Amino acid sequence: MTGRKFFVGGNWKMNGDKKSIDGILDFFKDCGCCGDVDVVVAPPAPYLTYVKEHLKCGAKVAAQNCYKVEKGAFTGEISPAMIKDLGLEWVILGHSERRHVFGETDDLIADKTVHALGAGINVIFCIGEKLEEREAGKTKEVNFRQLEAIVAKNVDWSRIVIAYEPVWAIGTGVTASPEQAQEVHDWIRQFLKEKVSEEMAASTRIIYGGSVTADNCNDLATRPDIDGFLVGGASLKPDFIKIIKARSA
């Protein structure tokens, strides 16, 4: 065992209303799944407080995004200070949809990460390559470039969880094989060893995301450098509890 506590995040994306969220929260009642696993769920921003108030287990609530400054004329954005004011501790940054749908650059994501950490918010930092980049043999190059943006900022790695999410596996039903995922996670850990420190490389949790299901999670969880999951669509379904329990299954 690595000593790194298993971590499972559920990214609800732009899904849900109070009725459907009540159904999701029912999964967690008496599930006993949060004792030896760090569990974080990320509802849409309008429901952050609702979920925090009604989630009756040890899971934490995360925001799906935040901006790089505390306040100002930035219509539609939320700040880490606002997230903290709600009593929350986590935010997801750098998700492929923010990078490739909304055009966020490596530098912007790095600035947002630095500001969130400075405001006392922990970060799930997402990286991952597109299919054409993998096919061109650029998997290392792309993921290392995305990581380098925050290495250059001298961030507090003890408050970051890295989520490797190959873009070609997100929402496609195609999952990186356990061997493919483990290979990239090992590359990431070696990168941290070289660029940050051996200690941080050993302690930083690197989780996998990309069509994780109750059927494939157990095999993925056995790999030495896969420390958990960031789950999309499956986190809206009862099978999410099975994914949380993947390492203990």
Automatic annotation (TrEMBL):
Organism superkingdom: Eukaryota
GO molecular function: triose-phosphate isomerase activity
Catalytic activity: D-glyceraldehyde 3-phosphate = dihydroxyacetone phosphate
EC code(s) of this entry: 5.3.1.1
UniProt entry tagged with the keyword rRNA-binding: no
Pathway: Carbohydrate degradation; glycolysis; D-glyceraldehyde 3-phosphate from glycerone phosphate: step 1/1; Carbohydrate biosynthesis; gluconeogenesis
GO biological process: gluconeogenesis; glyceraldehyde-3-phosphate biosynthetic process; glycerol catabolic process; glycolytic process
PROSITE patterns: TIM_1, TIM_2
Enzyme class: isomerase
Tagged with keyword Isomerase: yes
Subunit architecture: Homodimer.
Listed name of the protein: Triosephosphate isomerase
Organism of provenance: Mesorhabditis spiculigera
